[in-house]
Amino acid sequence: MAVAALFAGTVDAQELNNFNFGGRAKPIVSPEVVGDSVTFRLNANYATQVLLSGNWMPMGQTVALKKGTDGIWQTTLKAPYAEIYTYNFIVDGVSTNDPQNFMIQRDGTRYLNMLMVLGERSSVYNESTKRGTVEHRWYDSQSLGINRRMTVYLPYGYEANPKKKYPVLYLLHGGGGDEEAWTSMGRTAQILDNLIEQGKAEPMIVVMPNGNPNQQAASTMGLPTITLDTRAPENANAYVKSLVNEIVPFIEKNYRAIPKKSARAIAGLSMGGGHTTSATILFPNTFDYICPMSCGIRESDHLDADLQGIKKAGYKLYWVGCGNDDFAMPGTKILDAALTRNGMEHTLFTSDGGHEWKNWRLYLQTFAQLLFK
Amino acid sequence: MAVAALFAGTVDAQELNNFNFGGRAKPIVSPEVVGDSVTFRLNANYATQVLLSGNWMPMGQTVALKKGTDGIWQTTLKAPYAEIYTYNFIVDGVSTNDPQNFMIQRDGTRYLNMLMVLGERSSVYNESTKRGTVEHRWYDSQSLGINRRMTVYLPYGYEANPKKKYPVLYLLHGGGGDEEAWTSMGRTAQILDNLIEQGKAEPMIVVMPNGNPNQQAASTMGLPTITLDTRAPENANAYVKSLVNEIVPFIEKNYRAIPKKSARAIAGLSMGGGHTTSATILFPNTFDYICPMSCGIRESDHLDADLQGIKKAGYKLYWVGCGNDDFAMPGTKILDAALTRNGMEHTLFTSDGGHEWKNWRLYLQTFAQLLFK
Question: Model's pTM, two decimal places?
Fold first, then answer.
């Protein structure tokens, strides 16, 4: 297994460092990769404590860096398995990024340094050579009364083939996320670029809307929110209705999308998984591919009837993913059992770990290969 | 004058704070705006020193925050004039972002917190209501032998008017920048959205390529660079040649761009200003609008002949911008004098301050109103 900061997959740390420091003598390298270990360093001569917090560590655990005589703190760890991880330093109690590592992922309102451990599982997170276009597009939601931002991935070749129409995956984020979550934490563009280039996935458009119905766009855009009581009956499923009644028609009007159920997939994580199950129950004739991730469903006296509606309308794939340690696993098992009880063909895909991006990236690269075939 | 963190133009600090903290009791607000002053706060109970570094302060100057009994450090300052500024905290010698302020701009490899002081000059930096599309697009450079990333701004209405063709502004970044510099630090999308919505600027496509010929994309994308000796004769003007011979045709093939000199503008800051003067000297028949910013030109025995080539080819606008304290001012004066000496109509626009983004945003919002008219 090779270990590397993301860029180190292609640029070695020395190059990175020169980029950062213009080749100054004795530059600080962090993270530095040697075999299966990774070393983190921070120049913090006046700090009294420097901790490393990485999302591969048990919740709440940190690792203390040791201060050298040169005022540079460091620690060397065995690298976690092949995936993308995030980390930050805590300097005298204050969370800070690694100034040597300019690879940053935004998770909600937090900016976290990125570490990629190279390996088979993470290979599709690297840049491919045939790259699609990623655009930020605005649409008017009549039902919500606001102009809203979405991220749209257009596969390599979309512009060069003006007659070709494409199927569409509607890919939904979770609570605290926004329209940039899947392209930042999720590496969606790289994953689709690689799978399409390797012939493992069909060329497809991926639409990543903002799933917070009170928001116009990611909070980092600084736009005002609207007040929306999502518990009020008239606002029930406000976002899901906007997705199916407004976003889907907008995409099929503005892009060369195949306007058929057989060319529409919906997938989402956590809250977005809830949006996925709700959208397919409320609108069983819209999507042929249904992939909820890390999201439970509640037993109810109408659950069977809801699922029978989907069964009656017909579907091509019902793919459910969840981590073994995910708090959503009990609800996922309810969904799995209900699908079985209702005689609905489906896949339950489980993996190590919990409610986290390493699983959602794995699920995307797994079910994306099953869509539109 | 109203003062606010950027989002505070539309969302007050309390709302921001609730967004950030889910309405927890006694949340920390930073920056907090009251009248013409701004207060910065950081929860850092274990730190021994917290400094504020803002780019509105004299080079190298910082302001010390004072620690309260609750472990929260703070300082209140008179706000600088209406513009966008960046700042960070220095905790026990280590630079860190303000955890309460998720408005971040990336300047090269540095992530800096953003503060916007509202006022007439900065009003076009806010979100408008009719927003264009911003996309990241890849093109193959035959001359450089790499696939390269550019940012393209499509004005509001581009997609809704499939028959309409648009003029194009090629907007170039400076040294240390990349294809995201003008949309991050430069607020290009917001500036054009506002000026177009207000009828002050023509609807136009804005193309923001990567001006580092050895790079495929921003270093934050983690892609390998190529070795290119820019001093080697065969590599002279490698980027400028790629811009005119490859990027311009790519744009005119892939977008509804008007393929005419009268519908092409070129502008750039610093290194990009050098690219602007070089491109127009080497290819005098390509651009009718020429706007170098914060960039000098050297006296040479061929300067007059170079400029005469542009004069002979004809142009509609030669607009030169530079800060009074900019180290590029002497070279700017050489360009100004040479244009005058050669009987070439032009504008020299000067402003307070130096080699900095507050000037480049001001120049963009100023010359953008003069293009394609």
Answer: 0.91
Nearest to A127 among B45, B49, B223 (CB): B223
Closest approach of B232 to chain A, Cα-based (Å):
20
Task: Check A134 against B133: CB less than 8 A apart.
Answer: no
Contacts of B104 in chain A (CB under 8 A): 111, 220
Q: Average pLDDT, stretch A244-249?
A: 98
ipTM of the complex: 0.89
Q: What is the structure's pLDDT at A359?
A: 97
Model pLDDT for residues A15-29, shown as the tens digit of each residue: 333 333 344 446 899
Residue A285, pLDDT score: 98
Give phi and psi for B312, each to the nearest 5. Answer: -65, -40
The span from the CA of B362 to the CA of A183, in Å, is 31
